[in-house]
UniProtKB/TrEMBL annotation:
This is Acyl-coenzyme A thioesterase PaaI-like protein. SUPFAM superfamilies: Thioesterase/thiol ester dehydrase-isomerase. Pfam families: 4HBT. Coiled coil: none annotated. Residues 52-129 form the Thioesterase domain. It comes from the Bacteria.
Amino acid sequence: MDSIQERLYPSLPCFGCGHANPNGLRLRSYPGDDGVVTASFKPWPEHDNGLGFLNGGIICTVLDCHSAAAVMLEADRQGWKPLGDAALSYVTAGLDVHYLRPSPLHEAVELRASVREASEPQMTVDVQLIWDGKVRAEASALWKRWRPRI
């Protein structure tokens, strides 16, 4: 089964979720029956925070880009297609990240995202990074409808 990213925006060059970026993370997120979008992410040795754990900037990136999958899936379900020649229907307008526990550098972590509020102008997504059954980081992501300016 193709991931949300591969199905809805396969040519996007985004560092976190773009499959057209050969040097990127290439997240693969999947819809669940319970409305939760899930993914697994295996950090690279280069993602070290200097103390042997996953770097906070990489955590922020995967939370942002995984929330994108939930947003783009909801937009697709609602028929809110990209406007003009835009590659995506929505862009990140805010990301409130909370780091709760260290995240491992050498083991895969689980990502979970669910759309809390959805309207055509904006969406809010709750997203978590989990390892060993514990939430390591969480965020609330605000996404706004991308409207090309002329």
